[in-house]
Specification:
Lipocalin, 2 helices, alpha+beta
Amino acid sequence: MKILKLLAMLCVIATVSVSVTSCNKDDDDDDNGIVGTWRDTYDGEWDEITFKSNGTFTWTWHEEGYADETEQGTYTYNHPTLKLSVRDEEDGKVYTETYTVKSISSSELVLEDEEEDTYTYKKR
């Protein structure tokens, strides 16, 4: 009888241990939910940001009648703060812009800059 009680107790302990150590939702959340290509379109013009999982980004601006401009740099994203850093080719200094991620989903990214202007990007 003692053996059955011991086995039952071990089963309960094993079940509780598995439940307690199961994956936390935060473990599954990729803080790089931002990774991918996002485009903001306005009046026939657009800008597009591609965030890579290695912490680099490429930002391209397109205006009708002008050559596209592209910036490349590094980023850090700790929700809700997104920091983009670019090294200036002329003076060699690194400049960082900070944005607030107002919302992010699998299809939409809303950023607010330091002047409180808001930009809405759609995932491509």
